[in-house]
Amino acid sequence: MEDDRFREALVAQMRHEGSLRRPDVARAFEAVPRHRFVPGVTLEEAYADRAISIKSDGGETLASISQPSMLARMLELAEIEPGHRVLEIGTGSGYNAALIAEIAGTSAQVVTVEVESDLSEHAREALAACGYDNVRVVLGDGREEVPGEAPFDRVIVSARANDVARAWWQQLRDGGRIIVPLDIGAGGEYAVGFTRYGDELRSVGVVHCLFVPLRGELGTAPPERVFTRTLDVRYGSQPRPIKSILAVPTTAASPELLERADVVVAQPQTTFAVTWG
Ligand code: SAH
User: Fold this and answer.
1) Residue 148 and residue 39: Cα distance in Å, rounded?
2) Is residue 113 in contact with ligand 1, taking CB distance under 6 Å?
């Protein structure tokens, strides 16, 4: 079929650029018909490596189908395995949920939460029409727990946040992994992959990203409490890439965190100890 060739070309391009390496992630991009999640665009547009706005309000983009190469990098960080239970926050078009479902396989359960009812309905229809019976689309606020579904092996947040909600930790099993696009006021927007060790999240990788903000308090910027180890770090003119982040619940954070990090950002729910590269 014609759309197969477009998908193969996109996968070849992402492989060439280095955003796609894992065979399971590549197979998912080859399989999911992206054009069926953004009706009304040509195949060229649907398989270009670009985000496409799917809902806006007065010039502000509320939702978009994410850029494939950015999703590829995040899905590689996630290391989803067959049979995993995966929670996605921010269904949007449903495209990423379909990619996750391909990687996790038919025996897995994917739960995806969307706050906009029209998007949720469209995504549910598109996922069903493409045969993704193992994806449950939930209408609701992703900052809250989904009743009766935890624990999850993976949590993937598909909107920009400036904090890690307690509900996300609580739904993630110990040893599980969360990928969250974070802008915490210390050097730009990064999708950070963390593994949970009890009450600590330790980063396993960081990739640049660009997302629409999560609606509600975790998406809009509260006045961050930023602490730096040295004045040089505070006033240094060069933004430095993030090397690693250790995150703990803010109720459990202590000043000693600064001894192990360059910058500590204490957000209302989670405190981030950031080490620069
Ligand atoms: N994964 C999507 C991209 C989503 S864009 C895709 O592949 O197409 C981000 C989505 O998050 C938008 O649809 C937006 O409506 C949704 N969103 C924003 N705030 C939210 C919240 N608090 N809870 C659930 N969904 C939210």
Assistant:
1) 33
2) yes
Out of 19, 53, 56, 66, pick the active-site residue: 66
Separation of CA 150 from chain center? 18
Q: What burial letters (b/e) apply to 20-54, b meaning 16+ CB within 10 Å? A: beeebbbebbeebbbbbbbeeeeeeebbbeebbeb
The token pair at 87 is 């929670």
Distances (CA, A) of 59 to 143, 193, 212: 25, 31, 13
Place of tokens 């998007």: 119
At residue 144, the pLDDT reads: 97
Can you read off the two tokens belonging to residue 20?
């796609």
The domain made up of 70-276 has a fold known as Rossmann fold (3.40.50)
Domains of the chain by residue range: 70-276
Q: Give 164's pLDDT tier (boundaries 50, 70, 90).
A: very high
- Which protein residue has the closest C-alpha to ligand 1 atom 5? 63
Query: Which tens digits make up the pLDDT trace of 7-45?
Result: 999 999 999 999 999 999 999 999 999 999 998 999 999
**Ligand 1 close to Cβ of residue 212 (< 6 A):** yes
pLDDT digits (tens, 9 = 90+) for 171-203: 999 999 999 999 887 667 899 999 999 999 999
Read off the amino acid at residue 99.
L
Q: In the predicted model, is pLDDT for residue 223 greater than 70?
A: no
Nearest CA to ligand 1 atom 17: 90
Other Cβ atoms closer than 10 A to 89: 27
